[in-house]
Amino acid sequence: MRKFLASLLSIASVTASAAGLQIIKVDEQHIQMGLAEGQVGEYYEIKPAIEIVLDASGYHFPPVPGQDSNEPNAIQLIIDNEHQFTAYWEPGVTNYTLNNSTLAPRFNDFSGFNAGDQFVIAIGVLVTDHEKEEQVFKVQWAGMGSVQP
After folding, report:
1. How close are the terminal C-alpha atoms of the chain, in Å?
2. What pTM value is reported for the model?
3. Do residues 86 and 126 make contact, with C-beta atoms less than 8 angstroms apart?
4. Where are the alpha helices (DSSP H) in the chain?
5. Considering only CA atoms, which of 107, 120, 118, 41 is closest in space to residue 78?
6. Strand order in 52-55's β-sheet?
């Protein structure tokens, strides 16, 4: 019986996800960095979801000083300043599904985009400073949004 219920929930999740797949397009209109003082980019508004697609096709990332390539290597997701996740960027890939299986948690597992959540998505280069024994995230693009009820 447990296997049946688990299968049923799995099918329901996939069906709901496929029907309401939401796409966040990485673009200049939504960028939240490098703007003149007092200016802000547009905010994303999404519906509650267990996953979203991040589409960076057509966006040209600025170079990062000290890096050989301007290609990002990481995506950071922060929800309500309390939950932080990382997804790794693969060279040449521009579409990413952000969900529980692709987001590595810093503290707690990813439980979806829930009504009322505020989020920040940042794309950039995650580098390790071996002398300081810490990781530094150099942001190339950042956008903000909220999850509607």
Report:
1. 33
2. 0.82
3. yes
4. 2-19
5. 120
6. 22-25, 52-55, 95-98
